[in-house]
Amino acid sequence: MLQLDGFPTGDGVKADRSAGRLTGSMMELQTLQEALKVEIQIHQKLVAQMKQDPQNADLKKQLHELQAKITALSEKQTLREEKMNRINVMLWINTIRKTQLSAVPVDVTVLTL
């Protein structure tokens, strides 16, 4: 399991819906984005090294492994974003339903009987 700065990624992080925020999922998404940023920066350095020594087999291997890692992180980020979008839609629908229920006119005469 990937872990950066003490924040594990994966299914171990749960969404906290208190105050309408999905802090767990948002933290995980941020962690994934930070990990991608770091891996891309390393990739850029490796590409620069490859320009100096294009026949270096070790650099080629590192670059290939890093590309696979970046692809995996990117796919994980996409899945997390899709999940957050689905949760946000469900929360939005529930909010609309609550609003519609509270907007139902109440006949006061029925209440006084």
TrEMBL record:
GO terms for molecular function: chromatin binding. One of its GO terms (biological process) is negative regulation of transcription by RNA polymerase II. GO terms for cellular component: histone deacetylase complex. PANTHER family: PHD FINGER PROTEIN, PHD FINGER PROTEIN 21A. This is PHD finger protein 21Ab. It comes from Anabas testudineus (Climbing perch). The lineage of its organism: Eukaryota, Metazoa, Chordata, Craniata, Vertebrata.
